[in-house]
Protein 1
Amino acid sequence: MPNLIKNPLFLVLILPGFLWGCAEEQTPNAAAAEAHSRQLSPQDKSIAAIYDRSCRSCHTIAATGAPLTGDIDAWSIRLDKGMDTLVNNVVTGFGGMPPFGMCMDCEVPQFEALITFMSGAEGRPGSAND
């Protein structure tokens, strides 16, 4: 058996299959959350345009590590830090998110509207839209 492992053909053909089998699989809940996030869009057309060009590509794919749009549980932890902290994280960059979240021409009120939309906080008690 040890000779088999030293065989380059084994390494090229068999080993990737073992490694692939160890990869994290997406759970049905994650797939459903992604599908749901892709259906959401801000009602305000100017905010929707910014979302489509700057936010959608990461906040609708769980593998990016970004909280999914509409995932209230993931966003509530972040909202607890306060809007000022969240906007600061966007402006300075945070984790895998680049500075300004890929929206170099956005203003603070636009970032706040995007965060409110993506977090699902719109219309919830304590949100800016109450």
Protein 2
Amino acid sequence: MTTTTKLEEGLALDRACLKAWFTMHEAQRQRMRFQRFWHPELFNTKVEPRPQSYATEVFKEVLDSMGYGPDYYDRMANTEANAKADLERVARTHPLWEHFEAIKGLSAYTCGAYVAAAGRIDKAHTIAAHWKGMGLDVLPDGTVPRRIRGKKDVERKIPALPHVTMIGEQIRAQFLRPQGRLSEFYYGFKGAEPPDKQKIYRHKSALRLTQKLLYACLWREHRLAYGLDAPMPYAFDLLKHDLGHYITIQDFYEPQG
């Protein structure tokens, strides 16, 4: 298989993941939009549901007349389930799946979602470019783009596209749920932060650094799988840091036995 063919087939897989994720997300959004009207019993609440009001009854009639009735809700629920299944099926055929499968806390869904967020990996020629597309870049002074209360003239770059930000939050949520290598990296970064920093800042910084490190390793494997070059990070390529500190995707794997 030529490099061009390998890249074309790989990008087709990436596109399939993105299409499945968008389909799933939009169907989920529509389902949740109308769930309180057609299936209020599905909401997890300890409060007794209120009796249906006169306005709600009329509004449901309007929704039904516009094509947003119970049949539409059921169709969106089925579309959501099928799209998620498609996303997971495609993800299991993706070159990155062998790595996601070996990392505790990650799944076929997170693999497909990550690929959907990564976009055109052939356009991200460096790790820094990939981080920027994933909303993990920094300002020229090395600080994270953020708003400051009471100030409107603060430089604030758009971190990432909405779906990239959403997927990033879903992946970060997996770092602490299982106690594995991901959480070890998190606690290592958190412990290295100055103790005088507020707890919330140490927590967010550790999450961000763990995510950047994971993404850097996945970026490299993603590009190599498609026959693309994957240059070493700046610190090792130009500054010639000790390669003993270089982290690979295998360092995230759970120890065997």
Protein 3
Amino acid sequence: MTYFAKTRKSAIGFALLACVACVAPAVTGCASKTAATDGEVALRLRAMQTRAFDTTDVNKAIRTAMATLQDLGFVVDNADAELGSVTASKLDR
């Protein structure tokens, strides 16, 4: 085998190794990231589900929320004006 053939094989091997080194992190992901705990996931979910309205008429806000949910096809399960919460579920049709 000539010197040129040996050098070419090493260059191809090096190029292949460089490609694998560049692609491997993208395929396997970053190992340093930690998974979110159940509490953090629940907190993020609750933050997305919570809305604040700038009004002093709590009853009107509750009624409006209930009417909107019903318009969207939900059935209101529980509404509490003191707590300011409305829970609803959507029936499969």
Protein 4
Amino acid sequence: MKKLNNKGFGVVEAILILIIVGIIGGTGVYVYKQNQSDKDLGSGGNSQIQKTASDSQADKQTAQTPAAEDSNKGFLVIKEWGIKVKLRDSDKVTGYTYDSKPGDIFGYKYDSAVTPVIKLINAKNENCKTIGVYMYRTDKNYEGVTKKVGDHYFLVTGSPGQCADSTNDPDELANQRLVKDFVPANAEVL
């Protein structure tokens, strides 16, 4: 009887090796791209905000405001729009949500929307991190409703949510002041 030489790789072993090499290579490419993306967002030097994707929708983003420059102290800087909004309680604002999806609100067409995100003191209700008021950007002047800042018009809708236990609650008082301040009249071009 003749012995066969069974040394070397078979087809099954070769396929397994290709799959393993593919998984390792794909993981390496993914990690490299994530590092490049993080580097682009975080090392902007003069960047006023950093964006991270929202859990619910890819077109919504939360922007974080790092230590403000002196010229922007007391303002919420909205980089996507090239404006800043003067806020009495800017120290309570941790950033904003930015929605780049165009829409229509009460018959007013807009191309994007922003709402501030606040840092709660009492943290009674996690749903109260946004102040319940949205600023919309539009290219159309809706008389008596919009205000022009730079090349665009802006309008605000909404009202503060009743998140606190009482009107003396510091979160509710800050929320009410932010609602009054987050208006196009307090906005200026960067």
